[in-house]
Amino acid sequence: MPTEEELFAAVDTLLAGEPALPGPAERSRLREAAGVTQARLAQVLQTTTQTVKNWEAGRSEPRPPRRQAYQRLLEGWAQQFPADAAPADAASTATASAAPAPGDTAPAPTAPAPTAETPSAHPAPDAPPRSRTPHPEKAPHPRKAHRPAHRPTPPPADQRFENGPLAVIDVEDGHVLAYCVGGLVLDVPAKSLPALIDWTLTEARLGQPRLHRNGRDGDPLLVLTPAALERYGLPTALSDEERRAGRLPDGHKAVRQLTRADWKLTRRGLGPWARIYRPAEGAKRHCVQLCIPAWNALDAREWDDRNAPRLPSMHPADLARYLGAYAERVMTPRGTAAVTGLELMTALHPPTRAEKDPVTGAFTRALNEDALTAVHDVVECEVPDEHPLLKGRFARHHLRTPAEMLMEEPYDWCRPLTDDECMRQYLVAIDVNMSFAAAANGLTVGLNGPTHLTGDPPFDPSLPGSWLVDLSHVDLSRVRVDGRPVDGGRLPSPFTPKGERPTGPAWYATPTVAYAVELGFEVAPVEAYVRTRTGRYLDAWYKRLRDAYVTTMADLGVTTGLGGAEFLDAMARSRQSDPVMALLVGAIKATAKGGIGKLRQRNRGQVPYHEPWPALERETWRPDIRAAVLANQRIGLHRKLMKTAAAADLYPVAVGTDAVVYPSPGPTPLDVLPRTPEGKPVPGTFRLGVSPGMVKHQGTRTVLWAEEQFEEQGGVFNIANHIKTDPAAGEGE
User: Fold this and answer.
1) C-alpha 425: how far from its chain's center?
2) Of 2, 72, 273, 665, which is most buried with the most CB atoms under 10 A?
3) DSSP-derived pairing of the beta strands 480-481 and 484-485
4) Mind giving me the DSSP string for 202-238?
5) Which 3 state secondary structure label does DSSP give 582?
């Protein structure tokens, strides 16, 4: 028990105030005058170099006990190196640092010592800081970490979400911290999980403005680190049973806490991606999403580097930078990258809008004509084997034929090398950037339910859907490209994923049949299922992902203005330039590919075979749209194969999804891709570059390596996806 004298002494000290730290510029001057590096100072104070940088830039203030130690050190240096004895350049630097930035009316204030009312900012290693001038008519938010006004930036467009779309919640030295985008760190006062949800919705100012005027704002996302899980009574790992269920049991303490506080969980419960909400009040939502990486929310196949995982050891500030950049360029994650890709479609094309009744003046919900607005009847040939529509139609293990099932899939094709090709030393693999997103661009898809056409209907390329037609008569050797013939025997058929020539009638999506007509052949459909309300539904989705991809590649030093050798050099350097942004590139690509796949999400053991599974309840469960995109991707690839063959007598030996392998006299794409006499790519052929639809170098192997692989496997197999593992060529995607 403290004595009365001790208590009075403590009160007197508090009344006198804590000794003020020197300003940021003076801290830097004193350290430099002492000849001490930021790294050495960080080592002495047992913190990070970035933390010291933040102190000297005025982005954050030290907390006890480091504050007292730092104060003592600065006072000692101040006696050794007084300001009036400082070199002229150091003094001028200090003066310049204290001067107002352009547009300021006063010098930047020195950050005050942290108090209960003004929580201090905290270090954000390796994340660029964000500072913002408070609005002159608006006091800073009471729970916001202090941000000095030394370099003002324009205020965010929506003040409701001024701290960004998400925060990574961590615990450091007993303090709960929220790492936000731009290097901002907030103190979190919440002592329980329900209190954390309340704080997020009332004080944190997190969220994302809607992407479409008829859509809804993005709910705030909290990413919980293992330390945060322990702090809020959640396990740092799921048990085997919980992992299989994908959630904590309803009787778990944390779930009961939320229930007692009148918070609700969606059907997926408290799992890796959890939504915690209360019923909306009019247009105002009360919903927070949790992302728990320790429960495998950020699967390495989509969000991480599978060969060298980075997420488990990533600092919370870097994780906030990574997911924050994804949220700002794509959208706030709502689950896996595939789920987010699908949600992005709906966010850009909301199914409904508010419409005012001219008589009553009341607002009602109306449908948007350019969106997917209802769950329509499905077509037997378009659904996967486990669909309820096929119950009793086929035996359990019956393999449906192309005449029974629409088989629009990417290429998986390979052929033996000719003798002439074996004389070339290398096999060079090129890879199409964002091929599925590029295939969605400009594609007309159906927005309503199917119309069944019978009695040998004429083919109409403007009607998206599925056509039963015989394309076995299409012979590529009879086709002339720019007046030149091609060797059809060394090219895959454009009509089957395995590249085999069709043998009879089969179901095809509209882009495939249209390509047969483009090649100059007659088509005679037997029947069709088409959609009469159409639109370019995926255009905005493609543009959003394209811009995200191109912007992130530019962050890595690969810009759209580069071509040829410059582009290849920039791609090689990009792998080491910024690991966090490199992960973001992979996540964007996974979003594009996975979003298309989700249009025909299959039953993965969720319910018994031939019973409805949850995905079938979505308006966006549209296998016909997925088939159209995949058909367009494969046809677009084949069109370039034909152009390349005609222009340079150059033929692929393997095609795997979006990777093409060519025999080459040299080890790079520049040694094999055809060019005009002026040194430019031949129009219509593959072109090196960063934009979606252009190609990059995936890898190089020798012809001898391929022959050894064929001999080891006992025959020819698709080598397209194996070439990228060549260490000498660098790793592909």
Assistant:
1) 38
2) 273
3) antiparallel
4) HTS---B--SSTTS-PBPPEEEEPHHHHHHTT--SS-
5) helix
How does pLDDT run across 97-147, given as a tens digit for each residue?
Answer: 333 333 333 333 333 333 333 333 344 434 333 333 333 333 333 344 433
Cis peptide preceding 65, ω within 30 of 0: yes
**How does DSSP classify residue 627?**
H
Place of tokens 């049991």: 249
Q: How many CB atoms lie within 10 A of CB 612?
A: 13
Q: For residue 205, what are its two tokens?
A: 């100012």
State how far the Cα of 49 lies from the Cα of 64, in Å rounded to an integer: 18
Report pLDDT digits (tens) over 222-268: 999 999 999 999 999 999 999 999 999 999 999 999 999 999 999 99
pLDDT at res. 694: 97
Both tokens of 312, joined, read 């488990």
Contacts of 527 (CB under 8 A, 6+ apart): 452, 453, 454, 455, 456, 457, 467, 468
- Round to whole Å and give the CA distance between 330 and 324: 10
Q: What is the DSSP code string of 361-394?
A: --EEEEE-TTS--S-----GGGS-TT-GGGTTTS
* Interval 279-330: pLDDT, tens: 877 667 899 999 999 999 999 999 999 888 899 999 999 999 999 999 999 9
Burial class, 88, CB count within 10 angstroms (exposed 0-12 / middle 13-18 / buried 19+): exposed
